[in-house]
C-alpha cells in the first residue's frame, strides 16, 4: 500500500517540541502581513468601492496605449485600462463618480469605443455599483466573517471545549490574515468571490482542526499516562496522512480551477490555495500550541457525567 | 454479521441515488431556441392565436421543431438562433401589441421527464448572460403625494362644514391646521380629531393650532405600498420589453431587484424601467393673459408650464384626468403624417373626460407630461435628488365631447411617441427609482464561463479520481464511485430545487466539494488502515474504521455547513449560488461518502468469511 507518510501513533513526530519556533514563525508572518496591510492597504475591487467596470473584446489584439489616449481625450482620464485573460480582452475601470449619470457610464464608454476604436467590439460585461451599495457590501462581508467565527466558536465550545474553540478561532484569524496579507503584498483585487473564498477557507481549515481535535479528545481518554504534549504529538501524527491527502486533493482541484476556470475565478482560487496551505499549517501548529498554552488537560475533555432520564427505573418488559 | 447492510437499507440507498439521477437526467438533453408568446393586458392566448401563429410561421417558411400551448403561453421551438429571430419578427408583426413575443431557451427535456417535473439546471446570469439591476425607490416622493392628498381632504372637509381656517399647511410631514377663533378651533377639533386612520392628533389650544401626525405604522404601509406598486408597474414594463423569465422582487426596505436574462440592450432597458413619466390633462386658461403670467403675475389657481419645443402655456388649476386612468395607448400617424398617441381610458376615466369636456367644446386642452429627472445632487441623506419636470407636450382644441378614447398629437418623433405609449400602457411609477447597481454579462462571456467552469470541474475531477484510485486501490475505486454519485446527486438536487441557480462561483463550489468530499473517505480509510496495523481482522477494521470516523466527519462537515448558511444569508446573486452548491454538496457527500461507500464495501467484502487482506 502507498503511504504518504510513515508517521503514526506508534512513531509520533514530536511536533510540539518545535512550538516555540513555529510561534515565532507565525508572529513574523503576522507582522509582515499587518505591515503590508497598513502600508499597501488592500486593493478593494468594484464591489466594495463602487464605480463602473467594462470588459470588452476587440476583434484583434487591443492597442492599450491608443485606448488610454482615446479615453483621456473624452473625459475618462480617470479610467484604468488593463488587458484581461487574452490580448483581445480589455478591462476598463472608472472610479465612482458623484453624478446622476454614473449609472450610464458603461453605455457611454461602449459607444465611445465603438465609434473611435473598433466597431466590431463585443460587450462582455458591464458592472456598475453605486457607492452606497459598495459600502453595504463591505459591511455585509465583514459581518459575515465575524458571524461565521462566532457561530463556530459557539459550536466548537458546545461540542468540545472552550480552550479548543478559542484556539480554533485563533487559527481562523491567522488563515484570514495570511490570505489578506498576500493579497495586500501582491495587490490582488478583492471582490465578492474573495469573500466567498475566505468563508470557504474558514470552513476548510476548521474541518482540518476538528479532525485533529477529535483525535486529541479521543486520545486523552485512551492514553491516560501520556502528558498533554505527547497526546498532542501522537494525535497530530496519527492524523497527519489524512491531513496531507485531503490538502493534496483539495489543492489538486484548486490548481485546476486556477488554470482552467478563467480570469473571473482566478482571485478565488489564489485565496483558496493560500488558505488551504495556511489552514493546514495552522491546524497542526497554531491551534495545538495555543490550546496547550491555554492549559488544556485531560479533565477538560472528559465527557460530562450525564444522568439519563429513567436510567434508575427498572426496565419493564 | 459485522459488515452487512439489511436489504431494505441497500434498497433505500439505491432508490435515493436513482431518484437524484432521474432528476439530473434533463441536463443532458440541452436546450432548444424558442419563441414564447403570452398575452398582455387586454389580450388572451387562445387556440385561435395558436392557429394564427402556425399559419404565420408557415407563410414565412419557418418550420418549427414543435409548438406547444400551455399555461396561457405558446412556445415555438425552432432549429437555430437565426430562425428564432426571424420567428419573433414574424410573430410581432402578426400578433400586434396585445401579445408579448419573447426569445427564450426551452429545455429539450423529453415529455415523460417533463411530466414528472424534470428540469435542467437553471443557470445564473453570469453563465447565460443578461442584466441584473438593483433599484432604489425614492420614498420622499411617495410621501409627498400622500401629504398633498391629505392636505386637500382636510381643506375640503373644513370648507364643507364652513369652518374658517387661517391655514392648512404641510410642515415637515405633519399637517398643521391653524384656526382663527376658539370657537372654530373647537369645531375643527370635533371634525378632524381621530377621523383619519393612520394619523394622530396633537392639539395646542393656546394658539388654536392642530397638528395631524402620521403614525409610524402608516409610514410603513405607505412605503410597502409604494414598493409593491412599483414592482407591479416594473413587471408591466418588463412584459413590454419582451423578456422571458424575468425576476422582479423586493430587497430590503426600499429596493427592488430586476433580473432580465438574455437582455443585451441595457440602455433601452434602463430607459424604460427607470422612466417615471405620467400625463395630466388640463384646460388651457383662456380667461387670463399669458403675458401677465410671464411677468410673474400668475393668476391664483392657474399654472404656468413650459411647452416642449419652446414657448409657455397657462393652464387652469384643475386636473381633468391623470395618467392612472389610461388602460391602453398605441401609436399611429395622423392625417398629416405626424405621429400621434391613441389613448383608451377606463370607464371612470371616460366619464370624467366626458363630463369635463361636454361644456368646453372649442376650448384648447393641454397634455402635461410629468417626469422625474435625477438632478445630480444629493439629498442630506445621501440619496440622489430628483427634479419634477413638467412640460406641456401638446395643446389641442377639443373638437367634440371626448369619451373613453381619444388621441394626442405633437409628442415628437415616432420613437418618442412609441416610448410614451409604452410608458402610458405600463403605468406610472408611484415614486421615482434610481439604479444603484447594475451587472450585465454578454452572451459570449457567459458561454466562456460555462466552458471554463466545465473544463475545470472535469480536469479536477479526473485528477482526484486518479489519485484516489492509485493511493487506496480498490477502496479508492469505491470512493471514486461515491464521488461520481455525489456529482450526479448535486446536479439532480439543484435541478429539483426551484430557487437554486448554478453560477460561476457555484461551479467553483461544486469542484471544491469534490475536493472535500473525498475527505470523508480519506478519514475513514486512514482509520481502517490504523485498525489493520493494530492487528485487527479486516472485517473488524472496516467496521471500527467507519464507526470511529463518523463523529469526526459529522463535526467537520457541520462547521462547513455553518459557513455555507452564513454565506447564503448575506450573499447576493452569484455568491448565493456558491453557498447553495456548497451546502448541497456537503449534504450529498456525507450520504455518498459514508452510507454509499459502506453499502458497496459491505456488498463486496462483507460477505467474504475468510477475508485476510484488504486492498486499501
From TrEMBL, chain A:
Bilayer disposition of the protein: Multi-pass membrane protein
Keywords, in A-Z order: Cell membrane, Membrane, Protein transport, Translocation, Transmembrane, Transmembrane helix, Transport
Residue ranges of the TM segments: 21-39, 140-158, 165-186, 192-213, 244-262, 268-294
Gene Ontology CC annotation, any one: plasma membrane
Pfam families: Sec_GG, SecD_SecF_C
GO-annotated molecular function: protein-transporting ATPase activity
Compartments where located: Cell membrane
Domain Protein export membrane protein SecD/SecF C-terminal: 115-294
Biological process (GO), any one: protein transport by the Sec complex
Xref: InterPro entries: SecD/SecF_arch_bac (IPR022813), SecD/SecF_bac (IPR022645), SecD/SecF_CS (IPR022646), SecD_SecF_C (IPR048634), SecD_SecF_C_bact (IPR055344), SecF_bac (IPR005665)
Chain's role: Part of the Sec protein translocase complex. Interacts with the SecYEG preprotein conducting channel. SecDF uses the proton motive force (PMF) to complete protein translocation after the ATP-dependent function of SecA.
Sequence similarity: Belongs to the SecD/SecF family. SecF subfamily.
Subunit-level organization: Forms a complex with SecD. Part of the essential Sec protein translocation apparatus which comprises SecA, SecYEG and auxiliary proteins SecDF-YajC and YidC.
Protein name: Protein-export membrane protein SecF
Naturally occurring in which organism (per UniProt): Aliidiomarina taiwanensis
TrEMBL record, chain B:
Keyword 4Fe-4S in annotation: no
Cellular component GO terms held in the UniProt record: plasma membrane
Domain Protein translocase subunit SecDF P1: start-end pairs: 227-285
Domain Protein export membrane protein SecD/SecF C-terminal: 433-594
Domain called SecD export protein N-terminal TM: residue spans: 2-103
Record flagged with keyword Transmembrane helix: yes
Subcellular location: Cell membrane
Annotated TM spans: 452-472, 479-500, 506-528, 549-571, 577-601
Gene Ontology BP annotations: intracellular protein transmembrane transport; protein targeting; protein transport by the Sec complex
Major place of residence: membrane
Sorted UniProt keywords: Cell membrane, Membrane, Protein transport, Translocation, Transmembrane, Transmembrane helix, Transport
Pfam family membership, one: SecDF_P1_head
Membrane topology according to the record: Multi-pass membrane protein
Entry's family note: Belongs to the SecD/SecF family. SecD subfamily.
Name the record gives this protein: Protein translocase subunit SecD
Species, as recorded: Aliidiomarina taiwanensis
Gene field: secD
